[in-house]
């Protein structure tokens, strides 16, 4: 009898064979951790393929209503949103870049501090959540738009499904480069990124600002010196045992190409992917781009590379040929051109051979 | 299904008791043929697996590179390629062999001690405890080496399980399993909470790899930990076959054969748990090896532990080497946690075994 009381949740189910019940519970217990992980995993795999080519708004500049096919979800935004909750830094930064930061009523799952150039415009930060917000915390702020850098924000266990929000009169919008469920393009390009800025301009009713911003970014991009030394690069995002690296179809590839670098993981048809160290050591990249985040610093990655005897002999590690980028700039968005500029500037300072 | 679990005790003992002289002789003959073959297969697997990988290296160069580290001849590989072979592949293959052998031994011993066909090395809350230790380190950035934390977590879980089972009276198989369930659930909940509460951004990926079991981080230190554990704990366990045979007939029979049942069970459970804890520390909780392989070997050579244990160890080592080789090369340059591969192969094998048991019953 006594053991039974110890595991009342399982014994409550009662039936005939005690041993089998025990075994079932034993088998289930370790998977609990995995279930949570799976939830979190769903939240990530961040800036996945875009379908911005197909997201062209049909609404003209004169009509206020903007009709969108956003990640396969038909969304109509009748008037420019005034109360916005942003999820992830890319959406917050897009709004700041368009000068509509004052419409942000809450932020969630931010990747770090707002860059200093936007500090003045940045709203008093009202963090709904460090991670994905709950539906209730979203509704509590009575937003008219939830604007997310990750599609996974719109699920029942995060900010709420898009259909649910729609019923409550709350529009939802995903940065098109982060669409995953539908319309993933073979490869992200700067045209997609500029298309996103234009689309955001239409949504917030600030088309002229968006047009100006795109023109400025195009000019900046055209002015960046493309390295012509034929160098290869590894985009090292996170991970120790199996490094998580920028692969062939997402923002990392787009930025590296624009800076004149060849991504060693270009053949992997993913935005980001978990690779084995062996293939990276085999490729022996000329430079390593390190993504710097509060939770996974560039410094910790350098330490990791130097401590691992297999990677310590890489040319880039031995000669400290590192380029660092802040995490928020590593995802597709309004800071992508800035990311290219930063990579190119750091790259030009590196002496090779 | 019901009959499988509940017939564990009766089914096994009658299998042992009912084995005829002929069958026993046949099993012995099979073992005599199998043992040397399996030793050869393991040795060949270690050599062949080191020549496979995402980097395109010539087989001869790889082998000469390895020989040079053993003091034979010059190394034809440049430092980078040598790093791939001697810094990544060789320690990984050797860790896989040690972990595979250790898990198979631990699983077989655990199944005998608890007289439970579905017992595996992680039964006593060990993997949950180790996971809790590992997740704490990964998420909270506690300044302890991950293997040490995982090992510590496993030991705490073991202490809790045995303490709980002991507090309930004599340590019987059922009480031990029940206590393990309680401890697993608690540690599992704490792990889930830690992940849910503090997992930032993409740190979940590292945790996921760890929870699924992965040998991607196996370096020479891992070879040391797993190798020493298998040599110091696994080999003595291999020699406990006679005692385990007695246990599989039940406590009363074991006692009548002159075995101090309580003390021996404590000792064997503790040793198995230490071994498992060390293995979990370097590889995470790799599933199915410790659960399925002893069954597969038992079907071929019979239930006698004196042959079952060493052959399971050989099969386990060879199996995990190949599972890990698949994990790191099938989707190269991408990698899978090896636990996915062992489960992908292990689950159908296990299903077949279950179906076969059912038709026998």
Summary tags:
heterodimer; A: 353 residues; alpha/beta; Rossmann fold; 2 domains; six-stranded mixed β-sheet; five-stranded parallel β-sheet; 15 helices; 37% helix; globular; disordered N terminus; B: 361 residues; mainly alpha; ABC transporter involved in vitamin B12 uptake, BtuC; 78% helix; ABC_transptr_permease_F420-0 (chain B)
Structural features, described:
Chain B: It is a multi-pass membrane protein. Chain B: InterPro entries: ABC_BtuC-like, ABC_transptr_permease_BtuC, ABC_transptr_permease_F420-0. Chain B: One of its GO terms (cellular component) is plasma membrane. Chain B: This is Iron chelate uptake ABC transporter family permease subunit. The complex is a heterodimer of chains A (353) and B (361). Chain A has 353 residues and is α/β, with parallel strands linked by helices. Chain A has two domains: 171 residues, Nitrogenase molybdenum iron protein domain (Rossmann fold, 3-Layer(aba) Sandwich); 124 residues, 3-Layer(aba) Sandwich (Rossmann fold). Helices cover 37% and strands 16% of the residues of chain A. In chain A, the strands form three sheets. In chain A, strands 8, 9, 10, 11, 12 and 13 form a six-stranded mixed sheet that branches. In chain A, 52% of the residues are buried. Chain B has a single domain, classed as ABC transporter involved in vitamin B12 uptake, BtuC (Orthogonal Bundle). In chain B, helix 5 packs parallel to helix 10, helix 5 packs across helix 14 and helix 7 packs antiparallel against helix 13. The N terminus of chain B is likely disordered. The interface between A and B is large, with 62 and 66 residues.
List strands and helices in order, with pairings.
The complex is a heterodimer of chains A (353) and B (361).
Chain A: H1 2-6, H2 8-11, H3 18-28, H4 31-43, E1 66-70, E2 73-77, E3 84-87, H5 89-97, E4 104-108, E5 127-129, H6 135-140, E6 145-148, H7 162-167, E7 171-174, H8 190-203, H9 207-223, E8 232-238, E9 244-246, H10 251-258, E10 262-263, E11 272-274, H11 277-283, E12 287-292, H12 298-307, H13 309-312, H14 315-318, E13 322-326, H15 336-349
Helix pairs in contact in A: 8-9, 9-15, 10-15
Chain B: H1 2-6, H2 8-18, H3 21-50, H4 59-69, H5 79-114, H6 126-140, H7 146-167, H8 173-198, H9 203-212, H10 220-238, H11 241-247, H12 251-256, H13 261-283, H14 289-301, H15 305-329, H16 338-360
Helix pairs in contact in B: 3-5, 3-15, 4-5, 5-10, 5-13, 5-14, 5-15, 6-7, 6-8, 6-9, 6-13, 7-8, 7-13, 10-13, 11-15, 14-15, 14-16, 15-16
């Amino acid at each position: 009898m006594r053991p039974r009381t110890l595991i009342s949740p399982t014994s409550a189910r009662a039936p005939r064979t005690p041993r089998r019940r025990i075994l079932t519970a034993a088998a289930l217990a370790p998977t609990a951790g995995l279930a949570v992980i799976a939830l979190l995993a769903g939240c990530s795999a961040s800036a996945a393929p875009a379908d911005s080519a197909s997201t062209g708004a049909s609404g003209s500049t004169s009509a206020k209503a903007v009709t969108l096919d956003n990640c396969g979800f038909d969304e109509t935004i009748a008037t420019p949103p005034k109360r916005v909750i942003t999820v992830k830094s890319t959406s917050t930064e897009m709004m700041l870049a368009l000068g509509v930061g004052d419409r942000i009523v809450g932020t969630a799952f931010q990747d770090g501090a707002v860059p200093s150039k936007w500090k003045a415009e940045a709203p008093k930060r009202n963090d709904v959540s460090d991670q994905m917000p709950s539906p209730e915390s979203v509704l509590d702020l009575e937003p008219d738009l939830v604007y997310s850098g990750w599609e996974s924000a719109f699920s029942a266990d995060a900010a709420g499904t898009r259909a649910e929000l729609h019923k409550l009169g709350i529009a939802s919008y995903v940065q098109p480069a982060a669409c995953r469920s539908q319309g993933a393009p073979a490869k992200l390009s700067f045209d997609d990124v500029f298309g996103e800025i234009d689309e955001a301009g239409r949504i917030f009713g600030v088309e002229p600002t968006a047009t100006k911003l795109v023109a400025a970014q195009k000019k900046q991009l055209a002015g960046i010196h493309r390295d012509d030394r034929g160098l290869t690069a590894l985009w090292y995002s996170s991970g120790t045992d199996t490094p998580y690296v920028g692969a062939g179809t997402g923002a990392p590839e787009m930025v590296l190409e624009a800076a004149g670098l060849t991504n060693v993981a270009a053949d992997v048809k993913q935005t980001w992917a978990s690779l084995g160290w062996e293939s990276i050591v085999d490729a022996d990249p000329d430079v390593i781009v390190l993504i710097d985040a509060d939770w996974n610093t560039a410094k910790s990655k350098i330490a990791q590379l130097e401590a691992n005897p297999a990677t310590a002999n890489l040319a880039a590690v031995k000669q400290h040929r590192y380029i660092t980028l802040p995490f928020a700039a590593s995802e597709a968005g309004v800071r992508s051109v800035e990311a290219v500029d930063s990579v190119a500037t750091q790259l030009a300072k590196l002496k090779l051979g | 299904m019901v009959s499988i679990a509940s017939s564990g005790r009766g089914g096994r003992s009658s299998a042992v008791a009912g084995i005829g002289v002929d069958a026993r002789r046949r099993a012995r003959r099979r073992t005599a043929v199998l043992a040397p073959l399996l030793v050869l297969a393991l040795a060949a697997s270690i050599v062949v697996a080191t020549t496979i990988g995402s980097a395109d290296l010539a087989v001869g160069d790889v082998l000469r590179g390895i020989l040079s580290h053993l003091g034979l001849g010059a190394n034809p590989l440049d430092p980078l390629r040598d790093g791939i072979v001697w810094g990544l592949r060789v320690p990984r293959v050797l860790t896989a062999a040690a972990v595979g052998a250790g898990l198979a031994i631990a699983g077989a011993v655990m199944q005998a001690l608890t007289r439970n066909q579905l017992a595996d090395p992680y039964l006593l809350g060990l993997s949950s405890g180790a996971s809790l230790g590992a997740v704490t380190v990964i998420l909270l950035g506690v300044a302890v080496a991950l293997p040490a934390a995982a090992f510590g977590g496993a030991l705490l879980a073991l202490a809790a399980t045995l303490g709980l089972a002991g507090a309930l009276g004599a340590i019987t198989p059922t009480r031990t399993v029940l206590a393990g369930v309680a401890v697993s659930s608690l540690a599992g909940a704490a792990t889930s909470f830690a992940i849910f509460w503090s997992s930032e951004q993409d740190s979940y990926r590292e945790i996921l790899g760890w929870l699924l079991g992965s040998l991607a981080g196996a370096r020479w230190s891992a070879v040391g930990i797993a190798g020493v554990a298998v040599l110091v704990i696994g080999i003595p366990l291999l020699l406990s076959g006679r005692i385990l045979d007695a246990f599989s007939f039940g406590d009363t029979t074991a006692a009548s054969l002159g075995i101090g049942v309580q003390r021996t069970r404590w000792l064997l459970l503790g040793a198995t748990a230490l071994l498992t804890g060390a293995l979990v520390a370097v590889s995470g909780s790799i599933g199915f090896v410790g659960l399925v392989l002893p069954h597969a070997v038992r079907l071929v050579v019979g239930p006698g532990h004196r042959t079952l244990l060493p052959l399971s160890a050989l099969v386990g080592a060879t199996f995990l080497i190949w599972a890990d080789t698949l994990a790191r090369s099938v989707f190269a340059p991408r990698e899978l946690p090896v636990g996915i591969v062992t489960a992908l192969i292990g689950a159908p094998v296990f299903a077949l075994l279950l179906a076969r048991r059912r038709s026998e019953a």
